[in-house]
Amino acid sequence: MSSRILPVHLLDEENPVEEVVQIVVPDEGTVEWIQYWHEFEGHLPTPIDVSITGSMLYRCPELKWYNFDVYPHKVKLTNTGYTLVISPKWKTERPYLEGGPFLEKHVLSQIHFHWGADMMEGSDHTVDQRRYPGEMQVTFFRSEYLTQEEALRHPDGVTMICYLIKYDVNPDARLSWVIEGFQRIQEAQKFTRIGPLPMSRLLPMFYEDYFLYWGSLETVKGDSYVIKWLVPRATLFASFEQMSEFRKLWDPWDEPNLRNYRPLQERQNRHIFFINAHWNQYNSLLPIPRVPEPSISILSPAYRKNSWMLPIQNRNNDNVDSENAKVSATHFVPTKI
Questions:
Q1: DSSP letters of 17-74?
Q2: What is d(CA 128, CA 54) in angstroms, rounded to the nearest whole number?
Q3: What angle is formed at CA 59 by the lines to CA 55 and CA 64, rounded to 5 degrees?
Q4: Which of 50, 58, 185, 309 could disulfide-link 190, Cβ–Cβ 3.0 to 4.6 Å?
Q5: Smallest Cα–Cα separation from 231: which of 220, 245, 242, 215?
Q6: Taking a C-beta distance cutoff of 8 angstroms, is the pair 136, 123 a contact?
Q7: For the sheet containing 49-50, what is the strand order?
Q8: Whole-angstrom distance, CA of residue 125 vs CA of residue 114
Q9: Helix H or strand E encompassing 209
Q10: Residue closest to 242 by CA, chosen among 175, 309, 322, 156
């Protein structure tokens, strides 16, 4: 990779000797160039509106999903009073992402949700100036930092994948096994176990057609972290009854938690990358999926080399084939329009 080197002249007031610091600017068209923009745009507030209009078409390697068909040891579902958190745990290797806009492996950490008081609001992000009933945000962190807490201290540490939740008259089977546990955690600070089922039963996996931008995440404690935000064109969907279950969860004051989405922020001329465009681009989001497709998750080299690491549900080849068939029933590909 060739790069541009920009000289920056610094003058120390106490020692009036000019010092030249060289800043390496990666070439446009590389993954490194995407990473470069966190220095200038990572502090900008989120969430924002994303759209094909005004975004920058960009090519990246294919995004690869590892171990998302592997059963977790347990899945914890918590009503924090502010949001709903899914915390899966594995005895051995976690699911992770490589390729795409990543320079290194990013492992799955946790999942949380945003929703509103009715079907006209709820999503953190808007797409084409439209807000949706809900949003599922999945946190990944750079594996070398070992924990999410440590990764948050680094500008290249954490990526959030944000799935919009559309309305449909039919329930989404991917959400059903999560919503099943809501009755046990109606009060704030309650938790329960659900599943466990593989994350491929919940996450729509994609390798193209997604938006990427940089922005900050503000916490209630006043901390601010640099996050890489991905908004795929593939979505979840939910029926009116499914979204109503979210509004029955209580906040810390024993009242229904009707709204937990954040205020929309200005774009402020930041880059919004539209990665690996493929499907029809008339709308920024893809239509609600109808046609099943197999999971695109693959086993990592560690699992392929050491099959004993796999959970018992994944060890038998017949079981794997059976589970892949079940998973495919909840994964869809949109029809070109």
A1: -EEEEEEEEEPTTSHHHHHHTHHHHTTS-S--EE-STT-EEE--PPEEEESTTSPPSE
A2: 10
A3: 115
A4: 185
A5: 215
A6: no
A7: 49-50, 126-127, 130-131
A8: 10
A9: none
A10: 175
- What's the distance, CA 29 to chain centroid? 23
Could you give the CA distance from residue 334 to residue 207 in angstroms, rounded to a whole number?
14
- Rounded-to-integer distance, Cα 323 and Cα 313, Å: 9
Q: Which of 297, 307, 333, 318 is nearest to 92 (CA)?
A: 307
| Structure token digits, residue 282 | 């008339």
Domains and CATH numbers, the chain: 1-36 (no CATH), 41-333 (3.10.200.10)
d(CA 63, CA 77): 28
- Kindly report, residue by residue over 61-106, the tens digit of the pLDDT: 999 999 999 999 999 999 999 999 999 999 999 999 999 999 999 9
C-alpha span between 160 and 177 (Å, rounded): 22
Burial of 2 (0-12, 13-18, 19+ CB in 10 A): exposed
285-316, pLDDT tens digit by residue? 999 877 667 899 999 999 999 999 999 999 87
The gap between the terminal CA atoms of the chain, to the nearest Å, is 38
Cβ contact 125:263 at 8 Å: no
For the record, the structure tokens of 221 come out as 């404690």
